Please model this.
Amino acid sequence: MRLTYLNTFVEVIKHQSISKAADELFLSQPAVTKQLKIIEEYYGVTLLLRHDHKTLPTREGKQLYCCAQNILTENNELLRSFKNELNDSTGHIDLIASNYPAHYILPDLIKERSQSYENITYSIKTTDSQDTYYHVRNGLFSFGFVGLKKEIPNIETLEISRASMVLVGSKQKYHFLLDQPEKIKDQNFILRAKGSGTLHEIKKRLEHLNMDRIKTFVECDSNEMVKKLILSGIGIGYFFENALKPSIDDHSLIILDEKKIERQFFYIYNTQKYKSISENSFHHYILNKYANQ
Model:
């Protein structure tokens, strides 16, 4: 059943006339009559009767009239919604990211994009890199942001940012380690929890320093908790230099190891996952922004 036929039927009921409906729709009367006949054959009932030179609905015709109006209204709203999304003016995007991208990359990305597409809405799930890969690989999210590069079928990666991590601690409590670096391994370490790309890179660095057996005091699910605990002075740990710059500059924190951990961050996406109009637009925005940098 074509929607145009339902629209013709509605116009005939409104005008109580086939000829007036034909004029309204820029159709010939025979064309309108043919469409009405097709509708009646489709439903298997009589929908219209002639009475006093008027075309009026039967009981079944009144039922179809109400349903047809709802169908046409919802169809028009759907068309308007799709048109708006095609124009990038509306839509919703679900994002998933590990901690550093969620706190230090996505806010700027969303702010920049919102200047042009202010009616796009977002939801952000913050987790670790391993979990982000799991969600994107299994099609639960179309794309995500991580701090770890993995080779997984149907998952493409694109580097979008870099950041340096430094080993830091409270100057007041840990200043002595500058002269006694061999005692670093005996201190309380604040680390990320298992599954984190940050933890993966820190472990590689500690193994290089022959400090694979350290005293892990606290394991945290988030980078922000690591940052707060380091600032509190209860332990030392690796954290992103750019995020700690104010505390390093005012000497409340000191860098305990001049060797930095260089981190890379990636945009990942599932090549087999269907993307909505707004998601596809965001996807190409990321590709265009970072593909040639």
Observations:
- DSSP finds eleven helices and ten strands in the chain.
- The two ends are 52 Å apart (CA to CA).
